[in-house]
Amino acid sequence: MNMSIEPSDAGRGAPEGQPPEAALGWAIYDGADEIAQGVLARLEVVGLDRREPGPHVYEAIAETDRLAARVLGRWLATGQEITPEEGQALSALGDLVGEVCLPGLVKAYLAFRDVATELVEREADRLSTPEPVKAQAAWMMSLCTDGALVTMTRRFDDERMRLAGELLAEQAKLEHLALHDPLTGLANRALFKQNLEQAVLTPEAGLGLLFVDLDDFKSVNDTLGHDAGDQLLTEVAGRLTRAVRSGDTVARLGGDEFVILRGGLTAEGELPPLVERVQAALLRPFAIGGHAVHTSGSVGVAYTDGDKTAEELLAEADAAMYAAKARTSLSSTA
């Protein structure tokens, strides 16, 4: 953190008989090093944080206080306002947010206010400065500290909001990972069971469940490798998702087993068209690793209008899928 900017000395060295504002202003300017050292001495006693910061933190505080005292002293002496470069250097103390806790930085600002005020009172007495000028200088010191505290608090609040946003995003990511299949992005077994149990407990209409198992998936892994098998599963997930409605749940239970949950049915007869779309989607060749892979799916169907539990519905669809797979096996060997 580079804070070694020196303020302009415009107006320094005014002749004898200068106004009391100028005399006190240059006294404050000349006392900048004393103020910075006084602040560090106080902070050595009270500390900044339970976790002691590095030397660069104290160096940054000293540079900031030194510059602030010189800018304030110059303003009182000449009326010259702070320059953009000085303002940028003074605001650099905000870079310590995250390294030092907010109470620690408050200690640093209050130490500056107290030490600077003591110097102002001492120099004002030495110079026999009129009370209004002395009060104005003390007020400017407090105003500078109060403004810096408000700015720093806002920066801490901004940092807190940023970290809170990152935490929420990370929590959402972890929740998504806990409930979704990492390979296909579909709902996993846990999320599917949640949706199924909720749908069975609050039936507004008929509920249909399709249990889909790929045929001869093992041969893809054996001939083309597991990477090709993973790619096929990902492609299958995409086709199943496109074959259903947006409100349906498509999940991968594991391996090459998929399920589709559809609610809002008026009759079991609404399920065969969905089965046909699913099977048609799987029959189209898949382009996997430069090969045209042909597969199909054995589909088991179960339906309830409120008379079955989640376990019963899943078991019925599972049994129907195995029956369909057995029929496919018989037809292929006939």
Q: Can you give a write-up of this model?
A:
By secondary structure, this protein is an alpha+beta fold. It has two domains: 20-173, Orthogonal Bundle (Globin-like); 189-333, Alpha-Beta Plaits (2-Layer Sandwich), CATH 3.30.70. It has helices at residues 20-30, 32-46, 55-78, 84-91, 102-126, 131-179, 189-201, 217-224, 226-243, 271-283, 310-333; strands spanning 206-214, 249-254, 257-265, 286-288, 291-293, 297-304. The strands form two sheets. It has a four-stranded antiparallel β-sheet, sandwiched between helices. A two-stranded antiparallel ribbon has the order 4-5. The termini are far apart. Residues 1-15 have low confidence and may be disordered.
Topology:
Layout: H1 20-30, H2 32-46, H3 55-78, H4 84-91, H5 102-126, H6 131-179, H7 189-201, E1 206-214, H8 217-224, H9 226-243, E2 249-254, E3 257-265, H10 271-283, E4 286-288, E5 291-293, E6 297-304, H11 310-333
Antiparallel strand pairs: 1-3, 1-6, 2-3, 4-5
Q: What key attributes describe this structure?
A:
334 residues; alpha+beta; Globin-like; Alpha-Beta Plaits; 2 domains; four-stranded antiparallel sheet; two-stranded antiparallel ribbon; 11 helices; 62% helix; disordered N terminus
